[in-house]
Amino acid sequence: MTPEEKITKARSQLVLEQPFFGVIALRLPMVRREKIPTMQTNGKTIEYSPDFVDRMTVSELKTVIAHEILHVTQLHHLRRNGRDPGNWNIAADF
Length: 94
Prior knowledge:
6 helices; three-stranded mixed β-sheet; mainly alpha
């Protein structure tokens, strides 16, 4: 299964199992980025490393996509202000 097929399957399952996350997942474009280590969001898209997606199960991928959606719904991308991006991401994860 390609990374894109795996993402499609994970998003489809989110729609059926966790509609809150599923609906938002369908509204955020998934953008392939070769040079990032995992996944990230800017609040408008979710960017993913195909190698990272390839190593994950669909179940794990659903969790990571939901994690990125929580960054968006909690407005982390808008609330960072001048804070250090690395520290802000760690704090937001907590």
